[in-house]
Specification:
Elements: H1 3-12, E1 16-20, H2 24-33, E2 39-44, H3 53-61, E3 65-68, E4 80-82, H4 92-99, E5 103-105, H5 107-114, E6 118-123, H6 128-141, E7 146-150, E8 168-172, H7 175-178, E9 187-190, H8 198-201, H9 204-212, E10 223-227, H10 231-234, E11 243-248, E12 255-258, E13 263-267, E14 273-278, H11 287-300, H12 306-315, E15 324-329, E16 332-336, H13 343-353, E17 357-361, H14 374-380, E18 381-386, H15 391-400, E19 410-413, H16 417-427, E20 433-436, H17 449-461
Parallel strand pairs: 1-2, 1-4, 2-3, 4-5, 6-8, 6-9, 7-8, 9-10, 10-11, 11-12, 16-20, 17-18, 17-20, 18-19
Antiparallel strand pairs: 12-13, 13-14, 15-16
Helix pairs in contact: 6-11, 6-12, 14-15
């Protein structure tokens, strides 16, 4: 076993550890820590009725103490706290615990502290999951052992004992995870930075600073992959300590770029350019997915032979909830783009179809502006079906746009997803495309975008 891991387990053997949040990423963490720490306390604001009884029974058999529902965070009688990414790092209660001498960390921070292999981490406002998956697929195609996880839905810390020095850890990181990170990956990838999660971060500066944290602890041997087409990420270049690789859909750069004839290319620092494959060879639709491939190429350049990059482009069919084809019914195609929880994500999805479509939008309000989305609604949407907390804001932004004339798009409100799907069914004709592209988070009606997307798919498949 990795000596660092052995030393860590020895260190916590006399400690009381609280794990905040019993979500997907923490269940295996709780199982792993049980029996290794003096005590493990699993805390969650949800009541016991929200969990499967078999899981709670299992935790009981492992000796895990449960603190559920109201009062789950009342007592600070532990030494170490592992916060869930959704728990804001600057929460006053966490600050109080730190002031008492307590240790606040996360499973991802522990993984980075103890990981013996090369790490590639991806963050950004858009395209994180697809880019992270593409990097992992390219590495695996070339024969590498890959540990894929993070914000993509899988905790990596429980795998730490399996990780070997020659492996690769490929990790998606959100701003909530990054805000407290004090270690950077070997290769730091930032897809773009646009307004997002301002309901939690409060202002754009804190959100941007969290994204910058991905590369800020790199040394001279680190590599940063940045978006040349994004103003915020371009501003990061002078702050880098290691090598910078850019990617661009618009210009030739030192890195990966899209040539005018559709060829994806890579230019190294000597000026030598390698042609890879044409954008028409990529199975995934949309210009944003070309950008995702350019990002992944820059990240694995020098590690993965170009042969395997080309192979992934031809065969990779995409990730669930990201312009995912659901079904065709009466010559109407239905797509699930539930991941589109911000305006920029929805814009990318709209541009992918190349025609005017029917769009289902709305959800939880993250306090981000919708005015930048409005011109794309006017240009690409024939019928806009709105629901959720942001419905009024989306309509107001659309009607205020200079190109809006009263019926482009036609706007209809629905009380929930069921009604929205029924309206779309009623108002479509052969040749139409319907997409769920909320431009909003899911938390007004769903615990996450995955549950929202699967509900949408269920409703569509039942039509």
């Amino acid at each position: 076993m990795n000596q660092s891991v052995t030393a860590f387990f020895e260190e916590i053997s006399g400690k009381r550890i609280a794990v905040m949040g019993i979500g997907v990423s923490h269940i295996d963490v709780i199982r792993m820590l049980a029996g290794k720490a003096r005590a493990v306390i699993a805390c969650d604001k949800r009541e016991a009725s929200a969990f499967e009884s078999a899981l709670l029974d299992e935790f009981g058999a492992l000796g895990v103490e449960l603190r559920l529902g109201e009062g789950y965070f009342d007592r600070l009688d532990f030494d170490i706290l592992l916060r869930t990414p959704g728990m804001y790092f600057n929460l006053p209660r966490l600050s109080e615990f730190r002031d008492m001498g307590g240790i606040v960390t996360s499973e991802m921070e522990l993984f980075f502290d103890l990981c013996p292999c090369k790490t590639i981490a991806v963050t950004g406002s858009d395209g994180k999951t697809t880019t992270t998956t593409l990097i992992a697929e390219m590495l695996k195609a070339s024969g590498k052992t890959v540990h894929l996880g993070g914000n993509i839905g899988k905790a990596l810390f429980p795998e730490i004992m399996k990780v070997q020095p020659g492996d690769f850890a490929v990790v998606e990181l959100s701003s909530f995870q990054l805000i407290s990170m004090r270690q950077s990956p070997d290769i730091a990838v930032i897809t773009n930075v646009e307004p997002n999660h301002l309901d939690v971060h409060g202002d754009m500066q804190e959100y941007t600073d969290a994204k910058r944290n991905l590369y800020s602890h790199q040394n001279a041997f680190g590599i940063a992959v940045l978006n040349s087409d994004n103003e915020v990420t371009r501003s990061f270049v002078p702050l880098l300590r290691g090598q910078c690789r850019m990617f661009s859909l618009k210009d030739k750069v030192a890195g990966s770029w899209l040539r005018a004839d559709g060829m994806l290319c890579y230019t190294d620092y000597s000026g030598e350019t390698t042609e890879l494959f044409n954008k028409k060879d990529i199975r995934l639709p949309g210009e944003h997915n070309i950008a995702n491939y350019l990002t992944a190429i820059a990240a694995v350049w020098g590690i993965v032979p170009t042969l395997y990059m080309n192979e992934v482009a031809r065969v990779f069919g995409g990730v669930e909830h990201r312009i995912e084809f659901v079904r065709e019914l009466d010559s109407v195609k239905w797509y699930n783009d539930s991941i589109a929880s911000s305006p920029t994500r929805s814009i990318a999805g709209l541009k992918a179809f190349g025609k005017r479509i029917v769009m289902l939008a709305g959800g939880y309000d993250k306090k981000i502006p919708y005015e930048p989305l409005a011109p794309y609604l006017v240009k690409y949407v024939r019928l806009l079906i709105l629901m959720g907390d942001t419905a009024a804001k989306l309509e107001a932004a659309c009607r205020a746009d200079v190109g809006y004339n009263g019926d482009n798009p036609v706007i209809i409100h629905a009380k929930d997803m069921e009604e929205a799907v029924q309206i779309a069914r009623r108002e479509t004709s052969p040749g139409d495309i319907v997409t769920l592209s909320p431009a909003s988070a899911s938390f007004d009606h769903y615990p996450n975008f995955e549950v929202r997307g699967r509900h949408f798919k269920q409703l569509v498949n039942e039509l």
